[in-house]
Amino acid sequence: MRKPWDDELTRRTALKLGLSSAVFMALPWPFRDVAQAQGASPHFLVTLFADGGWDPTQTLDAHDPLDVIDAIDVDVPGEPPSSIVNVGGVTYVSNAVSRPMVDTYFSKWASRTAVVNGIHTRSTSHDQSAQLVLTGYLDAARADFAVMAAHHNGGDLPLPHLLISGNSFGGPFSGLSGRIGGQMGQVLAYNRIPGHTDPEGSQLAVSALGEAYIQQALEWERQVDGASAVAGKLPAFTDASGRGDKLVRLAGSLPQNFNNGTQLATSLGNAFRAGMTTSVSLRGEGGFDTHGDNRDQNLRWNDLFTFLDEFLTQLAVEPGVMAPSLLDETTVVYCSEFGRTPLLNGSFGKDHHPWTSMIFAGKNVRGGSTVGVTNFEQEGVKTNFSNGMPDDTGQVIDVQNVVAGILTLVGANSDTYLPTVKPFTAMIA
Prior knowledge:
The structure is a single chain. The chain is an alpha/beta fold. It has a single domain, classed as 3-Layer(aba) Sandwich (Alkaline Phosphatase, subunit A). It is 32% helix and 14% strand. It has 13 helices and 13 strands. It has helices spanning 11-16, 31-38, 100-109, 126-135, 145-154, 183-187, 208-225, 227-231, 240-253, 261-273, 295-317, 399-409, 414-417; strands at 44-50, 83-87, 90-94, 113-120, 161-163, 177-179, 279-283, 330-336, 339-340, 352-353, 355-362, 369-371, 397-398. The strands form three sheets. Strands 1, 4, 5, 6, 7, 8, 11, 12 and 13 form a nine-stranded mixed sheet that branches. A two-stranded antiparallel ribbon has the order 2-3. It has a two-stranded antiparallel ribbon with strand order 9-10. A hairpin with a 2-residue loop joins strand 2 and strand 3.
């Protein structure tokens, strides 16, 4: 008996297999039914990447701005002085004049937010550090944590991982990820065809690029699962065309201005509740590569926390799938590729530094906590991975440990994806 992947790849074959592109390679499962069966709500992930390499000493990594003994400059000479404050258990650097939205954000969301400091990125190259922060490796065969989370929490959805903007690393799960716009728009280009003599031919025609993705997806299915992978899904493949319509509507419903946190949260809420995707990645407020006049970092941080406040505020009022609020079902991770040097340079700016911080908010996050510490040279110290406190018997927090910790946070077994890597879990509730 011929196997489905032995057939000539045609539009009709694609329809029978329920695949109009690689993003259609698995059927959506109704979140509500599965959640009820498992007795738990779904877990969505939104990953925001601030490009350029931010200066965490201005906000997240608290060092005394008035301490002239340590080797860390917080303020540019002449600007209003900053101060260390603690709000709701989160310790951060405040400056009500230069970056007031940092105070606004933590006054509202400290109880749902965790900050992790002292993360070693191992590189000061923009591209390398971005890959390391997202995957834990400099290896093209490795997936980033957003894609791995999608594989764990939504592998059967039409588009498990939605890439809106920025970089993503699919690794062995590249078939689960798709970008709205650009290439994905070509994949989703199809026409309804009236078929008077061939009813099956009237359903769906995919683009040439889509057919190439289909072939790739089928080969992936064959290698991973064998004959049962496709055959087991055949009874439900008739809804493939309808799912294509949903993805096209999803692409059209997303706001053009992704810097508006309210609009983005509303659009993603619709996509999550419709069972279209479970993990979303995008380029957030960034532009942190400021080598001169470090006061420019103030503007970036203020914009970042303005967006984050808007985004969490709207997530909190968006209905969840099982929970009253979508914020109770969504984890938000905000990161950058590295930090900035401890001392100001001759232009009163800061250069690249291989130590950074991350922001976590929402589901399963240990709210009201600041974990991980940097020393007087702004380098991470040995840390207890369970409570996030300095510990001479612990180890320095590496990006691999954080990636493994994020997988643990979203409910996955990190050993499945990063064997032998110890997960950093102090930010997990």
